[in-house]
Amino acid sequence: MTEPALVASGLTRRFGGLVANDNVSITLEHGRVHALLGPNGAGKSTLINLLSGDLAPSAGSIRLGTREIAGLGAAQRSRLGLGRSYQKTNIFGSFTVHENCRLAAQARRQRPWRIFANAIADRATNDIADAALETTGLRSQHARLAATLSHGEQRQLEIAMVLATGARVLLLDEPLAGMGAQESARMVELLRRLAPAHAILLVEHDMDAVFAVADEITVMVEGRVLETGSPESIRASAAVREAYLGTEAEN
Ligand SMILES: Nc1ncnc2c1ncn2[C@@H]1O[C@H](COP(=O)(O)OP(=O)(O)O)[C@@H](O)[C@H]1O
Ligand SMILES: [Mg+2]
To answer: Whole-angstrom Cα distance, residue 52 to residue 75?
Structure first.
């Protein structure tokens, strides 16, 4: 057995008196999509922020491969192959699609002082950006200003930017939010394509999408993990049904 891509244990994060994550443990495996479900305020985004380094945990550990990363900042974690997207779209609207990806690619090359001087001439960075756009189906849109993309394309661009950083572990916070049916289907298809070469943590409310793409599911309620298991076991769980899925799924 290969070791997990990421193992978080006992993560706790308090905001004043509120415990947004309470002793949360989760394991992400290479080649698998792990969906994270839970009602609004359950602590899903907080968990992603703790894993990505955007927030420091009050307690707990995070291993990326064999390395403990809980004490590292977000930029260091990114360079180690941990990538994330945000619940709210986070792109540079006045830059082209390709420029957005190139800047993301540049971030992994650890020569930030060269971004503006040499980015255009930098073949490797261009190639990485091209590959990320190809993978996400945005290559034909490369010259457009990011602000002019449709909402669905902007979310695809965000994924392309995460890929351009070289991330192998992807933390995706509601990548289907606000999408129409066709855009959602395209994103689900993209996630399926990314899964073999990545470990993916997917926060998503769309149950059809979750059950279409997830290999494993964790359900959070009020800052705690209620249950982790296969899609079948989560679907069959009385506790999950009661806490989250609603009783209409009964029988
Ligand atoms: N930066 C913050 N400061 C204070 N409270 C926060 C902060 N971020 C999240 N919270 C609170 O933590 C809880 C979990 O939030 P969040 O992780 O965003 O939930 P979810 O993503 O599952 O909807 C909520 O009660 C939220 O109000
Ligand atoms: Mg959230």
So the answer is: 9
